[in-house]
């Protein structure tokens, strides 16, 4: 009777080990899928932030051009009012205004390039997170298989079960 009870106990233990391995693998796979979804959403958020940055940069550049046009117009009007429309001071003022506008737009373009690079790096991080999640799910599946195999091996090597 003792050997029969031992076989039943081992059979139940093996069944629980197999069930635990299968369920653990299933849950780990679900976790990996959730992590992949999270990384995909982070990537989408990154794209939205990038679009907002690019739009703001375009608006700022257009504002600089508009301000330059207003300043140039005011300089011409002031020069004409003072009777200097044919002098070199008016041309120098217009050139200085144009140079400042160009410098401002260059600074904005450089900031945009830095922002673009930062977003590219964030996209790479999201891709790596997705790969890690996928690999974590695969590892969990194989750990579950290994657990099942270990249970079968321990059951097969038992002296009281079949031996």
Please give a structural write-up.
- This protein is an all-alpha fold and 163 residues long.
- It has one domain: Helix Hairpins (Orthogonal Bundle), CATH 1.10.287.
- The protein contains 2 helices and no strands.
Supply the key terms:
2 helices; single chain; Helix Hairpins; mainly alpha; disordered C terminus; 163 residues
CATH architecture field: Orthogonal Bundle
In the CATH scheme, what's the topology name? Helix Hairpins
Give the class-level CATH name: Mainly Alpha
- Quaternary arrangement of the chains shown? single chain
Task: List segments where confidence is low: pLDDT < 50 over at least 5 consecutive residues.
Answer: 159-163
Count of folded domains = 1
Task: Give helix and strand order, one letter per element, not per position.
Answer: HH
Strand content: under 5%
Which structural class do the helices and strands define? mainly alpha
Estimated radius of gyration? 35 Å
The termini sit apart by 16 Å
SS elements, strand count: 0
Describe the main β-sheet briefly. none
- Name the overall outline: rod-shaped
The helix fraction, in percent, is over 70%
Mean pLDDT level: 78
Number of DSSP helical runs? 2
